[in-house]
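Teaching assistant here, posting this on the class forum so everyone can see the example we discussed in section. The complex has two components, and the goal was to see what a joint structure prediction looks like when all of them are supplied at once.
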Amino acid sequence: MAAHRRRCSVVLLSIFSLSLINVAHSQETTAPAGQYVSASVDPQTETAEKKAEQPAAEGRWEETEVGNMDLGDAATETPDSLSHENVFSPSVSEPKHDFREELVIRPLHSGDIYASFQFRTLWKTNFRENKVSHYRLFPKSLGQVISKFSVRELHISFTQGYWRTMQWGQPYQPAPPGTELWVWFQDSVTDVDGTWKKLTNVLSGIFCASLNFIDSTNTVQPSASFKPLGVGNATDHRFLRYATLPREIVCTENLTPWKKLLPCGSTAGLAVLLKSEKLFHSSFHSQAVHIRPICHDWECKATSWELRQTVNVVFDRHISAQGKREWSLFKMFSRTLTEACPLASSSKIYVDITDSPQGEQLELSPPTSLLSQAVALGDRRTFSVYDLKQQSTFGMTHSLNLLIRWKSNEGDMLRPLLHAERYVAGYGLHMGEIHTLMYNNHPYRSFPVLLLESVPWYLRLYIHTLTVTSKGKDNKPSYIHYQPSKDRVRPHLLEMLIQLPPISVTEVTVQFERALLKWTEYTPDPNHGFYVGSSVISSLVPSIVAMDTNMTQERPLFSSFFPNKEESTYFTRVYTEPLLVNLPTPDFSMPYNVICLTCTVVAVGYGSLYNLLTRSFQVEEPSPGLAKRIANVIRKMRGVPPL
Amino acid sequence: MGLLSDPNRRRALISLLVRLNTPISVVCYFAGVAWFMGLAFEPFTLRTYMSENAMGSTMVEERFPAGERALASGKEFSAHKKKVGGMPVDWLVKTMQDRGLEVFTQRFSRTLPFPDENKERYMVKGTNVYGILRAPRAPRTEALVLSAPCSPGDQNNQAVGLLLGLAQYFRSQIFWAKDIIFLVNEHDLIGMQAWLEGYHHTNTTGMDWSPLQGRGGSIQAALTLELSTDVITSMDLVLEGLNGQLPNLDLANLFYAFCQKIGILCTIQGKLQRNDWDSVSGYSHSIQTLMMMVMKQASGRPWGDHGLFLRYHIEAATVKGVNSFRQYKTDATTIGRLLEGMYRKLNNLLERLHQSYFFYLLPSLSHFVSIGYYMPAFGLLTVILLLRVSFRIFHLEVSSPGVLSVLTPLVISHLTGAALYALPTRFQEIAVEHFPVSETEAVVLTAIAVYTAGLALPHNTHRLLTGEGTEQGWRVLKLVAVLYLAVLLGCTALINFSLGFILALTLVPAAVLVTPHRPKVLTAFTLVILSPACTLLFSVFFFQELQEMPVTFQEGWLLYLSVISQGILDHFLYGSLVFPLIALLVYPCWLLFWNILFWK
């Protein structure tokens, strides 16, 4: 681990970045077959790179800065960064709490705009040993949840809309439509299922969401797809629970409790921008909460809890900007910024200007002198940075209304290296087939992906019909983990490790039969259909940086012969669209007719049949005369046979 | 209840049935026909009403402004179409992309079993272009489709223009909850078939198509737009789909409601609504509309591009702009508003359209006849068959004739049916070689030849196997044939009422009349008149009459030949079931009666 970190810092020294946007998101994926290379960068290196970059900073600024930037500006930046360095220095007595906020704005090629908020609260404490009662920045409601339910890691996301990978590229925080919740419990938990049930109910209350609908029928325990993102090397998936609610609708009622978890609430800082009427006037909205333990210092002697709250939102050019390629903070959020959150140790806005570092395509106003580079999602990106902690950012008007304008419509997006789609094939209400397509657009490298499919029990998968084909040939998965469903108890779980050949489409198909539910099991709107949650594709994708054949031009020759490990692959997760499947549905408006019909059929049909079957037909004898009857009575009394 | 179990009363009932069998049958037949004719009488029908709450009470405002611009892009489309000489794929892709849609194309090719002379095509190659408007904040689970065919010549340019105009306008709205797919399909039904098969990844008809790259989840509803003029006088709604399937009645209601709201004249079967139901002409107007619908439904072919959606349980209809010589004119903006309103209401749907009827007949757009009302008409006709069955059973002697004497005609007539189904397409090459005819004519004439040959074949063959036919033999055979017919018609009517009813109208009298003891020539003539082929011939003339386009016998005969070829093509291209049903089941059944007539 230590050697690994050292290598990280070296890399970061050389690449000069003020912040890692998403390298921290790359995650250790322990592949069962061992193909995966661990490429984790621990989050605290993010703070470490700050101080590491400083010596190099002044020399590099002049190379990358925009025209109007002079050394003086760089100098003003330096003390500020140094003060940060002091705050984060592990040697000095560090604070137990830390809060940082940032907003990344990525102008998309379609003219849409992607805004990603991240709020990070750090707290050096140990929920396991001592009872915590005093909360400062960390929200108490979540702290209590962690200690009460012995949660090691908790990841919950609420998403409205589907991330369009082909138009927008990779998101910083991928999330499936609806709600996704996955939790690693401490290994001290004995009744994981019971705790999970309680936890979902509590979270349901905290976030005002229907998480209480998570039960055993939609919970799975993935064996490989979801590994802990924080410290610790527990990989026993008995302590992992994963569930999605693809139908969950996300709205203001979920955003309000989410905002209340922030130290500044929505009164100051970047959170001021989170106005629900604008956030939900968008093409995509995703909010998430991630809690995990991370190392607090270099030696990793103590762990601290990290709470990351994120909001990702994409605004549509045609809907919100009248088709113009021009955006401002006001246009996006109907708010401008006037201050940073006073509690935050850092508050920054990053604008991705990779496509026009010299301002040839994008125009920013007010212009900023600060530039930053980071490797995010396998690509080296350049960002303009607005530091809200500096008064000068707000200028004379004391408010920041960042304006982004495209100068031209040109420029093509690099096709995302990995994307996926899924659909239901066939027609009729008896059988169907789920097709999952995974595209590898890399020109020459193949890479493995882990596919996770969790299908509800009422679609009975015929697992013998499972086929995986790439380029027309059978592609045998190197690892398959399949857990069959049990009716009304648990869903199907299918995990596969598949190698995707370069420039190919890999198609996974499996047939299913639609079950006939009991009449009380139908939802109130059965003709809408039933949802099947997104499949999850987790992968270490070869990064675009490594694909770049011109890298020798930018870098010293000695550093560029072997592809660098950290940059050669990056972790990403791709979610497919959820499926809407119609099940055979009775006509619920017909019970009266059915009752009438059945009664009639039973009465007429069965009644007469029963009558025929049970009645014995006999030939009737004419009744004897009165005298004969009297004679018979007498004969009976005498004990002789009657006449 | 005692009626059946009491032997005396049972006997009385049976004797009554046997004695009055013929009068009851006659009464039933005429009652059935009268019932059917009564269906068009307005007091006997129900007013249409919107059953789906999600579409009924919600208000939508139609604001589509850009009719003129839509027509302009229609002109541009037609110019590009002329230039390319077919589907202007590149132009469409670019135009749709400019409007902010995700655009995909699909190539397809299909070699028809024999050349289609009506549309002059044999080896069909084409490209579908479709753009998906992604609904904001929707997870790609549901979609609506708006399609316009790219027809040859000057047809439908305005439809494509309006489609593009709507796409542009829809794109800037935030309220969409379902993806909207704008599809321009080439080669009308063949392109649509390719697209639908690609979308659902099925292959039922052996067509070659490239897989689709983009999808929008399960399609909830679809409309096909046909518009060939800038100014229209009325909108026509076409509902009849493949195999006589109809979309949910709510879709028709929705169209009617918006036409009323916006003030567009709307027609069905090209016939306007009339208010004078109590006059003779008013009644004859609505019975004509109803009969048009019955004829179209019975044909089992899709009467618009929408017809193929119905197989996939997607409610779909075709909306046609008609320019006739009326005073009242409507412009493209108004039609755009009509479609906008319909799509907004469809967008509001929470569930698939399922509340209203799937089985109905429409004597006018404002009135409908539900399955509960029209089924008795058919029921009265089939009752006759059941009466005959009971009559036969009670007349049958105990000694049963050999199984072979019944089985042989059955097998032979079915083999003839199989030949009728298989031979025309198989032997077209041979026929073309030996006779001076085109492939299409070869197919049709082979079909007619096999059909006629069938008349000569079976009625002698049973003797070859079992010797002299007995009196008992034909009775059993007739019993089997009548039962067979009853089951066949019953099943057909459940799926496609119109087809079942029309077949019952002719085949039931044939089944009742035929015995070997009647005058041969006269009965044979009657039987031929009542045979399925002649029914089709009469239907062709009758349909032309209903359309107010009467034809001479010569034209009618040519039309009849083309109808046969179209029917066979529909089966091979789209999977229509009418041709196999007639060839494999109805025709053999009729041959059985033919067989009985010539029983010796």
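For the discussion questions: The longest strand of chain A covers residues 303-315. The radius of gyration of chain A is 33 Å. Think about how each of these relates to the inputs above.
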